[in-house]
Amino acid sequence: MSGTRAFRAAATGARLVTGAIVAGACVVAVVFGVTASWPSVEHKPASAEVTPLPGDTVLVCNGDFRAIGRDPANPFQMVTAGSPALSAAGSSGTADSTPLVADDLAEGGSAQRLVGEVEGREAPLLAATESISLAAEDLSGLAAAPCRPASQDSWIVGGSVQTGAEDLIVLTNPGVVPSTVTLVAHGSVRASRTVIVPAESQSAVPLTSLAAGSDLPMVHVTATGSPVRAVLQSSLTRTLDPAGVDLQDAVSAPQQHAVLPGVRLFETQGDSGDSTVVRLMSPDADAQAVVTVNALGSAAIAGTFDVPLTAGTPTELSLSALSPGEYTVRVDSDTPVLSAVRQQEGGGPRDDFAWVMPAPEIDDEVLAAVPLGPAPRLVLVNTADADVTVQVEPVTGGDPIDVDVAAGSSSSIEVRPRTVYSVKGSGPIHASVTMTDTGALAVWPLWPAAGTQQSITVYP
């Protein structure tokens, strides 16, 4: 029996040793398997790169300039003060024009919708600008504005509800369905209003009906159902004398780095010491803005101003400390802000004023339509670190002009009224068109062409 026990003990020990070895091998195999690369099976979904067809280029013009208060028995009635002169051209020929009815004008009126049809897979370049010169007992001055696409979200930065100001927010719906438009006024008085703009029509809302009592009103415009074109029509009367008119385009959104070309400071007269001011507002958060002013044609800084901003509260900065002349204003902020510059020719009757809006960056060919008006000039600004050469050429034929714009500087050239130009730079630029004469001021920025359609990935 003792031999049998010894045999069994030896067998049991062998089994234990063998089990330990096998278990250890399993542990090593698991560790190695976890860290080692294993073959994988990958299934890639079928996909295709597709470039959507671009839509037609559609521009909306402002149409007739409105007069309000001409009938003492009906002071809120709006009538046509005059129809503008239109200059337009496109890369694919003459655009189709459709009238948009202004039902709220007592004697009737209309604006124009311009459509450049797609050719092949490319949307055509199209540019149009309106201008009007007024010399009536209640309205005097020059107003000009480009025709622009409609938008579902935009901001009116300028405007006034002070005594003598008659400002109207003109809303144009070029679509085939009605648009519900919400207007929200920001400033010392905050208010909102909703209006319905019927399909293919235009209507206007007095700024005083929305922002009465507000010192520096700004208005956020949002549209549902159909996008609208929003423009601020402004007029000013001092005592009983007209003192200017203007058409101010809306901006699409606040910016952290805004460039405003074509600002002019005039000799101050009488009580017009603040004839040129920068209006600013940060809609969403407190901000610190820096306003930098450069003389036209120079990279040297003529003035720098630090402006603290409280969220939702507009403020203004006077540029009266600077010498009279032509300037570019830049606004840089740590958060997106709204900005515009108001320039006033003088403080007397039959003077004029104009709002200067930020000019977006242009890095491709655009068309610039110059309407009827005095002494038009194209102002070009280069904020980059390298020099830029800009070619300016009439689309109907003529010798091109090459304009060299030094890094961080600006330049301007004379252009002809009632002419459309092709403008193309060797690098990004900002540009505005200005018109200046006694009792006549107008400034408006050039906008990039409609963006090219980008490819998208489609998964069946």
Q: Supply the number of helical segments.
A: 2
Global shape: globular
Low-confidence stretches: 1-12, 26-34, 451-460
Overall number of strands: 33
Largest sheet: 7 strands, mixed
Q: What is the quaternary state of this protein?
A: single chain
Q: β content, as a range?
A: over 45%
Using the CA coordinates, give the radius of gyration: 32 Å
Give the distance, in angstroms, between the N- and C-terminal Cα atoms.
80 Å
Strand order of the largest sheet: 2-7-6-14-11-16-17
Portion of residues within helices: under 10%
Structural class: mainly beta
Question: Any chance you could write out the topology, listing elements then pairs?
Answer:
Blueprint (H helix, E strand, L loop, with lengths): L1 H34 L12 E3 L6 E4 L4 E4 L9 E5 L2 E6 L5 E7 L7 E7 L9 E10 L4 E7 L6 E4 L11 E6 L5 E8 L4 E7 L3 E6 L1 H4 L6 E7 L4 E10 L2 E9 L5 E11 L10 E6 L5 E9 L5 E9 L5 E4 L6 E20 L8 E4 L9 E5 L6 E5 L6 E7 L6 E5 L4 E5 L4 E7 L4 E8 L2 E6 L10 E3 L2
Parallel strand pairs: 6-14
Antiparallel strand pairs: 1-33, 2-7, 3-4, 5-8, 6-7, 8-9, 10-15, 11-14, 11-16, 12-13, 12-15, 16-17, 18-23, 19-22, 19-23, 20-21, 20-23, 23-24, 25-30, 26-29, 26-31, 27-28, 27-30, 31-32
